[in-house]
Amino acid sequence: MMGWMAWTLPTAIFFAVIGALLLIMSVLAIRYPETPRMGILRMETTRGDRLFITLLGSAFICLAWLGLVGENLWWVLGVCFVYALAVFRWV
Amino acid sequence: MEKTLNQKAWFLVLPVFLLVAFSAVIPLMTVVNYSLQDTFGNNKFFWAGLEWYTELLHSERLWSAFGRQIIFSAIILAIEVPLGVFVALNMPKKGVWASLCLVLMALPLLIPWNVVGTIWQIFGRVDIGLLGHTLAALGIDYNYTRDPLAAWITIITMDVWHWTSLVALLSYAGLQSIPEAYYQAAKIDQASRWSVFWFIELPKMQGVLMIAILIRFMDSFMIYTEPFVVTGGGPGNATTFLSIDLVKMALGQFDLGPAAAFSLMYFLVVMLVSWVFYTVMTNLDKKAGY
Lengths: 91, 290
Hints:
Chain A is mainly α. Chain A is built from 3 helices and 2 strands.
């Protein structure tokens, strides 16, 4: 089963988390429709936009950590989580 | 903004979603899987963790290719955008000449990329090419296979020749959509040619220019075929841009793991830039009230 597309358990969990996030956001968008709001970037963002900014930004934070600090990514996961909270609160 | 009451229209997006899943999402997932493993072929993979990412982030080779890529994109944008706008401003607005100009401008865009590369590869050759031979006859030492500067000039000139038309055509379309009343008002105010350009034409072209810059940036940032055909990335590594380096790594060396990690980092940069451009463009549209 895991041999297909060279799957591994960590990558499967990674994509499952992303998939679950997308699913939750879709359900939220249907159940609780929202209006875009203006944040510190001076542009209108929806919850989906903020999720995208969070995921893309987190990818860069992880790469910067890998390049500058080292391979232990548990700490940077915390940094990404704080970043996500900041994006959802203020962007 | 009104709240959407009925969400059933989302089902209409389903076919596109499936298509994108098979053409982009599943291959991308495979690349992510490859980027964390090593393989010696035969579909056998070994877990490598984040090794390839760490190695590449400290790799001189990747950073120099990235630097060359940024310099290349910056140079061609700095030439093609002003030149394209200048050409568009000077193109006839109507009549037979306008149609002829449009056809002539569109011609370079219709030529396949590898053919453009071949044309310039031959054109620049010192022994048989018109450009190379003429420059040599004038006593100018020009040889793109030996001199990095000559190789860069050849590739940049080729890209400008190939793609300035796109910027010009988009700018032309933007110019054509400006109502005559603006020009009449400018005439009444006795505005100079420069003022007409700065206060009327340029703001009205803003939207199409953003699209032109986005398209040209993405295309130049992912350029492969043309420099590969002309210089093959040489002399040395002088014109080895990101995609040329990536192909060397993936197909030349068959280092699928590092190549997959490389592709993902490349993809992230492209996605970031696209997002910035998209956001700026949609905000400009909102300001303009579209």
